[in-house]
Amino acid sequence: MKQVVQNYKSGELSLLDVPVPGCKPGGVLVRSAYSLISTGTELMKVSEAGMSMVGKARSRPDQVAKVMQSVATNGLSATYRKVTNQLDSYTPLGYSLCGVVEQVGTGIDDVAVGDLVACAGNEHALHAELNWVPKNLYARVPDGLAPRHAAFGTVGSIALQGVRRGESQLGDVALVIGLGLIGQLVVQLLTASGVRVVGVDPDPVRCELAERLGAAACGAPEPAAVEAAVAELTGGHGVDQVYLAAGGGSNQPVELAARVSRDRGRVVDIGKCRLDLPWNAYYEKELDVRFSRSYGPGRYDPEYELQGRDYPIGYVRWTERRNLACFLDLLARGRVDVEPLVSHTADFDDAVETYQRLKDGDLKAVAVLFRYPGPAEHPAEAQAPAVAVPAVRRGGKVPAPARPATAPVRLAFAGAGNYATSMLLPHLARRDGVELSTVVTTTALSAANAKRKFGFAEATTDLDAVLGDPLIDAVFVVTRHSSHAELTRQALLAGKAVFVEKPLALTEDELAGVLAAVEESGNDRLQVGFNRRFAPLLREAKKRFGARTGPASVRYLVNAGRLQHGSWYLRQDTEGSRFAGEGGHFIDTASWLLAADPVSVYALATPGNEDLQVVLRYPGGSTATISYVTTGPAGFPKETLDLVADGHALRLDDFVRASVYGRKRWVSSRLPKARDKGQRAELDVFLEAVRTGGPMPVPLESLVATTAATLAVQASLVGGAPVTLARAR
Q: Using CA atoms, how far apart are residues 314 and 560, in angstroms rounded to an integer?
């Protein structure tokens, strides 16, 4: 089997082939499904291994003291051999995972082969395909909880034990210093307990994430700003507890804790930060300093962890194992949400590369999961299968037909409904260099009306005649959603450039059919009507925001409003869901802002699927959250969007005003005319591509990825779990 190991002397990381552990009595053999990288603890260990011998000594003075004692007892030569041997050995990584029981040892009767369990321990829940786990270091995963979420069990237990040590009560106010993985979980646990939370972290992205997950206010560790926020929430008394979830060598966290704590408040150390307590400050307030020992009572006790001797519940209510089970229960009941914390999921075979990217800073993450191959998939996760992102195969690509430079671009419209006549045709009618050749509709009267209003040369109900007309350069498909994919397929096979309104397809089979037409014909001249990315105001705001280096967070609120009774949008059995019809707009906009395609989709809905929350994950740790609501007030703006990254923020207010905050602040002037959502600019670049034979405005691969992500929303709602977007090779 494979296991992640590190040589502490050289710092080298390896994915090593090692023997399968035996299934000893008092425990179970577990095949890993997902294991979690603790980006704080583990990266600290990885970084220490890369230091010089002097650097290692400075970082671990406790070990240096042991070495000096050994020299005094055993002599220099023997101590040197012992230390060198220990350093030049493989050490394991990992301590939090979820997997399937593969074998049960004697004395175990609470789980069976095939059960899903969460496992703990830096000797038993390693980044390895198989682990032997003693009884008190595993807990059964509740039904319905996804394995990728259950993998957070151990880290969640650390946060839970820290909150227990703080003895918080309903109505308390707490300060959490450090909003990494542990800090984010502490924020959620406190919020679920009725505690108002202030968070502190130098990373604005983590602050914004903590606020989304329930914190009342978050910001940088600037004492004056933190004191002001605390004073507002506490009436000037100070916080009841401070939770130190930060690392590093700065003494600022413990100094800040003293400044904002109330008289006789509690300071709980969960992380590993410097603790040079300012005596006067802690003495004058009589602050109660407490340490939280890892997962809970039982930790570091070999009789509890290895021999399975439990502590009586009447004397020790919350042990390691009970904390683990409790956190899993909170996850299963939705009281804690770990999915927004998952910045990246990597295949286990890519473990070494993933650690290196984390160490180098190329991958900025709160939480990273390893996904293991083999039969570790569990029914709880199998309910939401991956949605395929089909590969684009162009076959023998057919070049765009040569056209005289002075010849007009001849267009045909399939459909002449409300959107076509209000948003597209007004920009095309009587336009220089464009000829509206033919309009095709299913009813003769609608075709005649479109011909009269916009000046089409011909009106017909015969689509085949249009597709067979060699003089027509491009076809616009603006019919009802259920016909988009088939009409697009036919037009591509006829050699036409195609502009199809969203959605491109309502099913994976329809999407595959469109791409089969591309491969068969060699014609990839396709554009989907994702116009937001062409809106002048949004493009200007993106330019002002500048280049991005770190992960970004996008928040997109869409106040879609109620549909009128009888609208064909409500015919979900034939026309797909409302989000399937419109959601591609917002996914495409987020992907354009982040310059990437999504890798997973997680969707939640209110009863009746009226309001949706869609979370998209992107490579490099970026996320986008789309709130698609139909129950909002009619007077509220339809679309508001925020992008936060690298200490900068962009805001778009319904295509009327935009602003960018950074070193300098830029605010657009209020537009004097109606909102411009980019339809005209999109048509400009599409017509230019048709006229010149140049590339389409949006790469076909991006159109396919956005369509697959839109389809994945429904798959996630059905399965109740995140859906991976599996890209075909």
A: 54
